[in-house]
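Following the same procedure, the fold was encoded as tokens, giving this record:
***
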Amino acid sequence: MHRMYETHQAADAQSSTAFRRTRSAALALALIATLGLSACGDKKAEQAPQSAAQAKPPEVGVVTVELKNVPVISDLPGRLEASRIAQVRARAAGIVQKRTFTEGTDVKAGQVLFQIDNTPYRANLQSAQATLAQADANLAQAASTVRRYKPLVEANAISKQEYDVAVANEKAAQAQVAAGKAAVTNANVNLGYATVTAPISGRIGRALVTEGALVGQGDATQLAVIQQINPMYVNITQSSSEILRMREALAAGKLTSDGKSGAKVSVYTDDGRKMTQDGRLLFTDLTVDETTGQVQVRAEIPNPNGLLLPGMYVRVRLEQAQIDNAIEIPQQSVTRNEKGNFVMVVADDGSVSPRPVQISQSQGTNWIVTSGLKPGEKVMVDGLVKVGMGAKKVTPVPWTGTSQAQAQPAQPAASGTAAPTPAPAASEPAAAASSGK
């Protein structure tokens, strides 16, 4: 009995274990089926936006070709120079008694700058005046003698020789008076030199002498320098080959220029700031430097606030002519290969085709196109990678100056999907445009 009871108990345990195993297997199969359905749903959810994205042509940035007058601008380095420079020198010898200006300020023409001891010059003036007074007295006496002798000589009361001597003495006295007046004038001039004034209006620098200094002994001692900084001169150099090409283009009618007024000049400081007022071109030198092949060019720029100083290094944008009915496109829209320059033109139906173009020169960040494009056509600037990856048609959108991928904000990734990778800029793959030539 006891063995039968143990056998029955063991059978019950085995059946209970088998039941648990069967139930675990059923739960596992149900879980796998549920996960499979969920994965299928996620895969369909992934494929749905992808298929929708494939249905719409990718967007590319384009610019519309238009004709306009483009100025021919040369970007050149230059140095500033004062329009007028005057060295203030001592024209009278003596001791400097006083300095009457503030260094680094603006002075007016005729303003007193230095006072030199004028005691000897005042004494010379007084002596010259006394000599002149004596000459005047001698002239008066000689003239009186001539007046008295005239009726006497007519009446033969005196000899004619005595009358001639009286007339000669009068003329000598007149000469002495003239010499006395000249001496007074010279003494006045020398006395005026003792008071040093500004010869021109402008900004004066530091004083080169101090009170108590002896100046004017031998050489004219330099006392200060005045520079007129409004307007300023800009001295620049331009390649003789560029000037020759410009003159040839002007003669051929490819460029236009207003010969009556000077060319427009814009000045930028070394940190890139543009001066508020533009200047004008004054002249171009007629001689080419034999060592550098450069031509000296001078322009004039207003400087009412005194911000520009002589000797400063600046960048000058010189507008010497203009191209009529020219086409400008961004430089990154042009692809170069062994056959020349190409751009990608987007048709009205969204199709893209390469187009060879002729480029004359650069203008800032743009190229000036002389042939190959027509007004109204759309040139692709951004999105060349999308065309190179097999896109047959595109959706043109106006180019805003930045990459389309950079212009659009990043979208958050959907649940269970990866965030889309932004398309590279159009300027990266240079070989993409050549593949469609």
About this structure: Confidence is low (pLDDT under 50) at residues 1-11, 27-40, 403-437. The helical segments are 2-55, 119-154, 160-193, 240-252, 384-388, 404-407, 431-434. The first helix runs from residue 2 to 55.
